[in-house]
Amino acid sequence: MTHILIGGETVSKNKLDYAIVSIKKLNIRVTPQRVAILEYLLTSGLHPTVDEIYRAVKNKFPSICLTTIYNNLNTLCEVGLVRELKFGNTPSRFDGNVKEHYHIICNNCNTVIDLHYPLLKEIEVFAEQIADFKVSHHRFEVYGECTTCSA
Ligand SMILES: [Zn+2]
Ligand SMILES: [Zn+2]
Predict the structure, then answer these.
(1) Alpha-carbon dihedral of residues 59, 65, 66, 69, nearest 10 degrees?
(2) Is the pLDDT confidence value at 3 over 60?
(3) If you measure from the C-alpha of residue 65 to the centroid of ligand 1, how many angstroms do you get, rounded to a whole number?
(4) Which ligand is nearest to the CA of 47?
(5) Distance 131 CA to ligand 1 centre (A)
(6) What are the pLDDT digits (tens) for 23-64?
(7) Strands (E) located in the chain
(8) Is residue 89 located within the same domain as residue 108?
């Protein structure tokens, strides 16, 4: 098992193997481009935009086009291996970590970092009680200035 250390968090190469097995089980073709996109999302620890993914994957596959990136991301999101993150009217970002977690976002450069904090399930219970809503989920984000921008 190879481990790549990113921002103090250990990301296992096994996650990629697991994702590839999941794709095969779903009868979705395992193309080298698809694997490259997943690998970038799982190992970079970043929350890249389509353009950023395109630039990263283009290094390996110079002939890849933006449409292929879009189509692959759609498929990966549909099967639940990748999550699309929408923040207001800025371009969507993509997350290879599909477990529920929060994010901290830079006001200036829009960098998105994982914020691991116990899920605030009590707020959903509270909302159900006070508003009589059948709650589906909640979103919570913390904003500030990243180290690069505040330097
Ligand atoms: Zn920043
Ligand atoms: Zn994330």
Answers:
(1) -70
(2) no
(3) 29
(4) 2
(5) 36
(6) 888 888 899 999 999 999 988 878 999 999 999 999 999 999
(7) 3-6, 9-12, 83-85, 93-95, 102-106, 112-115, 141-144
(8) no
- CATH code assigned at 116: 3.30.1490.190
Q: How far does residue 151's CA lie from ligand 1's centre (Å)?
A: 10
68-101: pLDDT as tens digits: 999 999 999 999 999 999 988 889 999 999 999 9
CA distances from 20 to 26, 27, 31, 36, 45 (A): 10, 11, 10, 11, 18
Q: Does 84 lie in the same domain as 30?
A: yes
Nearest ligand atom owner, CA of 112: 2
Nearest ligand to the C-alpha atom of residue 108? 1
List, for residues 92-138, the tens digit of each pLDDT value: 999 999 999 999 999 999 999 999 999 999 999 999 999 988 999 99
